[in-house]
Amino acid sequence: MSPNVNAAVPGLLDVFGGRQSARTIHFLCAFGFVAFVIIHVAAVLLSGAFNNLRSMLTGRYDLKGRREE
Ligand code: HEM
Predict the structure, then answer these.
(1) 1 CB under 6 A from ligand 1?
(2) Which residue has the higher pLDDT, 31 or 56?
(3) Residue 2 Cα, ligand 1 centroid: separation in angstroms?
(4) Mapping DSSP to helix (H, G, I), strand (E, B) and coil, where does residue 52 land?
(5) What angle do CA 20, 21, 22 make, to 5 degrees?
């Protein structure tokens, strides 16, 4: 998509089927990354942010109804 890279490696344009097609692929991949992050952050928050953070830091996860001996 960058004219600079285009000048250095002209063959890349054909690999992606032209600049507009590269833009479309870039947009779809970028959207995929953003959706991935949003969904995973939401999953962490919904499954108990405090418990998850504590387990990341200490290795201990509070399982409801289970007592550690
Ligand atoms: C090695 C990684 C990346 C490179 C080299 C890169 C390169 C570029 C370039 C050159 C443009 C300008 C396109 C134009 O002039 O039309 C652009 C636009 C854009 N990039 Fe990236 N990008 C990268 C990663 C990402 C990531 C990870 C995201 C988002 C998760 C992203 C989102 C966007 C968006 C939203 C635009 C504007 C839309 C467009 O112009 O088509 N990019 N990127």
Answers:
(1) yes
(2) 31
(3) 9
(4) helix
(5) 90
pTM: predicted TM-score of the whole model, two decimal places: 0.77
pLDDT tens for 38-58 read 999 999 999 889 889 999 899
Q: In angstroms, what CA-CA distances link 32 with 7, 12, 23, 27?
A: 28, 22, 14, 8
pLDDT at 10 over 70: yes
Angle at 31 between CA 44 and CA 17, to 5 degrees: 150
Q: Kindly give the distance from the C-alpha atom of residue 26 to the centroid of ligand 1, in angstroms, as a whole number.
A: 6
Domain boundaries, the chain: 3-58
CA of 33, closest atom in ligand 1: 30
Separation of 20 CA from ligand 1 center, angstroms?
Answer: 13
